[in-house]
Amino acid sequence: MSPAGPVLLTLADVTRVHGSDEVAVHALRGVGLEVRLGELVAVMGASGSGKSTLLNIAGGLDTPTAGSVVLDGTELTGLDQKARAALRRRSVGYVFQDLNLIPALTAVENVSLPRELDGVPLRTARSEAIAALAEVGLDPLADRFPEEMSGGQQQRVAIARALVGPRRLVLADEPTGALDSTTGEDIMRVLRARVDAGAAGLLVTHEPRFAAWADRTVFLRDGVVVDSTGGVHGPESLLAGAGER
Ligand SMILES: Nc1ncnc2c1ncn2[C@@H]1O[C@H](COP(=O)(O)OP(=O)(O)OP(=O)(O)O)[C@@H](O)[C@H]1O
Ligand SMILES: [Mg+2]
């Protein structure tokens, strides 16, 4: 378990209602969550329990109906769309449930795109992208297009894109979904290493063996946090020796 650093992300009493009146869906109801640098938090719960909504709000892709989201000292709900997008590009790496790779770009172009949007010079962005692809074992396929890769390979490209550059919050929505268990473990190792190197991570997964890589797990049911395990402040974690993983 990594020693937890300062708080990077705080969700306080976050509610998200989709639609209104008779068709209103309460995707989140009063969720509170704190994630520190050096901490990987797994989010589990049934389909429709609000996991993706939670990640979207944490990363500034969606805004809560009520409540507050503070990322790296900035209250996201107070920002306009442009400022929120800039903070997101700078600080947040996101692995989407449906990948969202751009079909017309090669693997390395997909990965370097967020850095180019950040204003990083092309050659630097490209070498950072190659390094991120190497982290997930895909640098040999850098010049392939998504349709020329298997589902698992595409997933690893999406993970490289989330890890490229110095992003401090890594949000991963079932990043192991299309992977065999060996590759899944490899991906968890990469996520874990990034978090141990000083990032904060939120990982949605249905699989306990992947959640086991996290420092703690938060369980959602119908938009409410119903349970959590392995809190970094719990007595067990204080008694447990450091650095076993
Ligand atoms: N844009 C939307 N409009 C209306 N309802 C939505 C919208 N997005 C999500 N919902 C609803 O909000 C609830 C939570 O959805 P969410 O996608 O967060 O679930 P999830 O836990 O990620 O599920 P899964 O495991 O299937 O990915 C669901 O009832 C869903 O139907
Ligand atoms: Mg989801």
Automatic annotation (TrEMBL):
It comes from the Bacteria. The keyword Transport applies. Residues 9-244 form the ABC transporter domain. GO terms for cellular component: membrane protein complex; plasma membrane. Keywords: ATP-binding, Nucleotide-binding, Transport. GO terms for molecular function: ATP binding; ATP hydrolysis activity; transmembrane transporter activity. SMART domains: AAA. This is Macrolide ABC transporter ATP-binding protein.
